[in-house]
Amino acid sequence: MRTLKYDVVVVGAGPGGSMTAWKAAEGGCKVLMLEKRQEIGSPVRCGEGMAKVWLNELGLKPMSSWIAHEVEGARIFAPDGSCLTVNEKLAGNECGYVINRDDFDQYLAFEAARHGADVMVKTMATSIMKDGDKVVGVKAKSGAEDLEIQAKIVIGADGFESQIGRWAGIDTNLKMRDLNSCFEYFMVDIECDPRYNDFYLGSAAPGGYVWVFPKGKDCANVGIGVNRSKLKKGGEALMYLDKWIAAHPGIDKGKRVEKIAGAISCNMPIDKTVDNGIMLVGDAARQIDPLTGGGIATACIAGQIAGRVCAEAVKANDFSAKFLLKYDKEWRARFENKLIRNYVAKEKLIDLPDHIFNKAVKALSETSLEKITTYEILKALERKYPELVKELEDLL
Amino acid sequence: MGSIMKVDRSICMYCGACVGFCPRVAVTLYETRIEFNENCNSCGLCIATCPVGAISKDAKDDSKCATGKAKKGGA
């Protein structure tokens, strides 16, 4: 067995992993990033919506190589067809661009490599190595070769699977209501409004929603997330999506040219994302907006912080949980409040009946909102349907 | 107790949904192949999690099925 030595080993070359590798390498660390697939970013597992505002915050320049399409705003549809249109400024962080995730992931991974990180594809972490209560590396299989990779810090960026953290004893397990099972088609020759990312709420997608994110004039990602607590048997996410498409002739007339499957966590932020010699980033740390399912931006922000903390830890020669807690504190300061707020909203929306969605969306569409915040929404609803707000008052 | 979970590889899209939800970390995704390890108690939580319906229990071997519900992540 070959032994390799690094400051930092990053497991998973998604946006969170690549950002960490990039920033850690830039900060002077010797970094190795592992990706179990032979290609980075493929196959895609994503609806591919992303906000412009986040890109600015990340310091990433929008590039034509990974931006598929730009939208003006979002439309939220109730089961009866009532529609609330919101422009991008009001819609929060899930619209702006529709990206090509495979190209985006590759861009970030290649930047990490350009900044000095070593990258090994078709290389899978098979276990973590511990010395007492410290994580000190991972065992991996690269092609047919077994590797022992010693590292001062292991980054678990292994996505929804989130195995690295759980092997290390960090609890990232999900409850029944805290994940959505997802399926998506890329469809062409459909009728869609390329100006908007569309969201369809209600019993067509129990506990979740259907999305239509255009990637051009006549093509879009058409996908669904269904809350796990609403699923009785296998394949229901796909079944719900096919049923929804059949009820929408403008979409149904098109052709399904790609299939994408996956799952999204929608839990309260987990208690800890670091331990001695280990940090978790992105989906692996369950850093996903529980309401929208958006996780690209949070993974990238967390990755930037984690990468910087890696560099600081190497300089200080301190890889203890206490030192790495800097990362935990910083990502929470940046976006934990929003995740908690949206978790509460998600908990409420999971069980909301269709007639309430109908009333709420109708009321909101007839009001001019200054901002789409929970508070503004409740205020507007209270004016129109005071009894509705009783249903939703936990959100306050 | 061996796992009685079965994956139909012609249906599986190797998305990892079953892996991330398994409360016993008993499922592994090898690029395009799902495998259940010895920690699997055949609780079956993965079955309805699968977006495409690729997972089932081997009906011939149902006697091996865990009697209790999974402790973590269960309803």
Description:
The complex is a heterodimer of chains A (396) and B (75). Chain A has 3 domains: 2-45 and 103-174 and 269-347, FAD/NAD(P)-binding domain (3-Layer(bba) Sandwich); 70-96 and 176-265, D-Amino Acid Oxidase, subunit A, domain 2 (D-Amino Acid Oxidase, Chain A, domain 2), CATH 3.30.9; 348-395, no CATH class. Chain A is 35% helix and 29% strand. Chain A has helices at 15-26, 52-58, 88-91, 101-114, 163-167, 236-246, 249-252, 296-316, 321-350, 354-365, 374-384, 386-392, and strands spanning 2-11, 31-35, 49-51, 67-70, 73-77, 83-87, 96-99, 118-121, 123-131, 134-142, 145-156, 179-188, 196-200, 209-214, 219-227, 255-265, 274-275, 278-280. In chain A, the strands form 3 sheets. In chain A, strands 1, 2, 8, 9, 10, 11, 17 and 18 form an 8-stranded mixed beta sheet that branches. In chain A, strands 6-5-13-14-15-12-16 form a 7-stranded mixed beta sheet. In chain A, a hairpin with a 2-residue loop joins strand 17 (274-275) and strand 18 (278-280). In chain A, helix 1 runs parallel beside helix 4 and helix 11 (374-384) runs antiparallel to helix 12 (386-392). With 75 residues, chain B is of the alpha+beta class. Chain B has helices spanning 17-21, 45-49, and strands spanning 5-7, 27-30, 33-36, 55-57. In chain B, the strands form 2 sheets. A two-stranded antiparallel sheet of chain B has the order 1-4. A two-stranded antiparallel sheet of chain B has the order 2-3. The radius of gyration of chain B is 11 Å and the shape is globular. Chain B starts with a strand and ends in an 18-residue tail after the last strand. At the A-B interface, helix 5, strand 12, helix 6 and strand 16 of A face helix 1, strand 2 and helix 2 of B.
